[in-house]
Specification:
The chain is an all-beta fold. It is built from no helices and seven strands.
């Protein structure tokens, strides 16, 4: 089974339809994706990320200080992807950039 791979760490118009695309994520349906802003505030979280209906498009689904369903500002964000295959848990993290 192939491991996951980030297609592009840039989210913007004309790039993967504006979606943070994670290749092979569908092979790991037991996954959680979290995105944080530069102050460490969670701005996006979902379980079962699928590059379609459950995908990060630079829009907040945060709960507290960030308004939901609002486009996030241009800038650098930090992501954490947790996924597992059978009993083995894995984590991938890094930075992405939102451009408008």
């Amino acid at each position: 089974m192939c491991d996951i791979e980030i297609e592009s760490d840039l989210i913007g118009p004309g790039i993967n339809d504006g979606v943070f695309k994670i290749n092979n994520i569908e092979s790991y349906p037991d996954n959680t994706v979290k995105v944080y802003n530069r102050w460490g505030i969670l701005v996006f979280e979902t379980q079962g990320y699928d590059n379609a209906s459950r995908a990060f498009r630079g829009i907040s689904n945060g709960r507290v200080t960030i308004q939901q369903n609002k486009e996030l500002p241009v800038g650098i964000y930090f992501y954490i992807i947790e996924y597992s295959n059978d009993q083995e848990g894995r984590t991938k993290n890094g930075y992405l950039y939102i451009n408008r």
